Amino acid sequence: MAVVVQSSQGWVLNACSLIDQGYSHCIRWRGGRKSLVRCRFKRQCFQILKSHYSVNAGAAVDGGNADVLQKVNKPSKKRKRKHSELNQGEIDSQVFHEKIRSVILKGTKSLVDAAQLLGYLNGATDAVTEPLPFQECSLAALCEMAKELPLVDDEEQEECAQLLVAEDGRTAHVDLFSRVTENREDWTTVATLMGEEYVIPPHTAFLLSDFTRIQPLLHYGRKFDLIVMDPPWENKSVKRSRRYSSLPSSQLKRLPIPQLASTNCLVVTWVTNRPSHLRFVRDELYPHWGIEVVAEWFWIKVTTSGQFVFPLDSQHKKPYEVLVLGRYRSSSDTPISSSETSEVPVEDCRLIVSVPSALHSQKPSLSEVLKLYVGEEAMCLELFARSLQPGWTSWGNEVLKFQHSNYFTLTPADDPKDISKDEICTDKPTPASKSPGESSPPHHRPTTVD
């Protein structure tokens, strides 16, 4: 079950199941022949068994005693600064943390307790002993090289989309860098792209490009009811690790959100725990686009036993990240209250609790928790995406990163009878002609607690 618990405080998600639920019917093309395969995201990616500190699980979520947590941590080799030596950013971080600390502590305890009553977050795992999958991602470099290719002219806007699967059912030859690629089929396709195998979910559209080549997405002609983005925020650890290229905050204002958003579109932005980034989104970025801030949510990272992955009061890494939610208000529209529309009000300070991926920068899917606020048939877009979601449109210079076949377990199922009814999606089939941004109804029911 992807949504394990749903309550007035938030949700407990099984992030791996969220990925899997779109891959039950999967076809693989190799050597001009197709075969039916079982497809599951590798379980070891979500086996975070221990916290990054030695403390009792109950104390981690129940007590949250900062003094105890600091004593059990190994002493740092660096000389600790006195409180008076904290810079303004660190002081702002402490103030923000103290403001939300009790909400996170109490809400997480309630949600984890409810999940454990259902047998989840109790330390049980699939006991997968295989090493973490690894795939050297060269997509960003390929995007740089693709800048030499000509862009699609405005006169050719109707040709800005291309099919991943040709009429004969085979994977088509596609231009990934200057056209939006669509998989309109009702099944997942394991396709060879750029010499590598990628797992492409059904009713998906994506564009592989960087910030300077986003024009084909505009020419695609879609207006979206939900836009989620995870910007590559600048910070010291990213510069040191060189995992990916960061983007200055000021450059984010150039994103064409007003051209992509429908009226009352819900816009959700992942924000690091730097208060300066949070202030920028709330006070500059959203107002620049005409977006009204409606809520702040928190993603709480826990182990398979329900402990925080980092000390709640750690001075360095926190076990949570912030999401800023807002509604796009077109300047040409007359302001109306939510009671006069079908818009569902967004509650503030909701928590999303899940075991994080051990793979860097892989966020949990928000599709299930956000559908209440945008509707079942919403057109959904993810910006700066590193993976694909069924029914969504995605853009980014690493948009296929976590779709590489190395991150999935693919096993033959040549006889369709080998796949049980429970594994086959029980949704009503989505017509092949349906727009790629439209999603199908979910096929599970979350447990709700008060």
What order do the helices and strands come in, and which of them pair?
Blueprint: E1 3-7, E2 10-13, H1 15-20, E3 26-30, E4 33-41, H2 57-63, H3 66-72, H4 88-117, H5 139-146, E5 161-163, E6 180-183, E7 188-193, E8 196-200, E9 204-208, H6 215-219, E10 224-229, H7 236-241, H8 249-252, H9 257-260, E11 261-271, H10 275-289, E12 291-301, E13 320-328, E14 351-354, H11 367-374, E15 380-383, E16 393-396, E17 408-412, E18 447-448
Parallel strand pairs: 1-18, 2-14, 3-7, 5-6, 9-16, 10-11, 10-15, 12-14, 15-16
Antiparallel strand pairs: 1-2, 3-4, 4-17, 6-9, 7-8, 11-13, 12-13
Description of the molecule:
With 450 residues, the chain is of the alpha/beta class. It has one domain: Vaccinia Virus protein VP39 (Rossmann fold, 3-Layer(aba) Sandwich), CATH 3.40.50.150. A 13-stranded mixed beta sheet has the order 5-6-9-16-15-10-11-13-12-14-2-1-18. It is globular.
- What general form does the structure show? globular
Oligomeric description of these chains: single chain
The proportion of strand residues reads 15-25%
Number of helices: 11
Uncertain segments of ≥5 residues (pLDDT<50)?
54-59, 63-76, 420-445
Helical content (DSSP H or I, runs of 4+): 10-25%
Give the helix/strand class.
alpha/beta
Short structural description:
The protein is of the alpha/beta class and 450 residues long. Helices cover 22% and strands 23% of the residues.
Please name the defining characteristics of this protein.
13-stranded mixed sheet; alpha/beta; 5-stranded mixed sheet; Rossmann fold; 450 residues; single chain
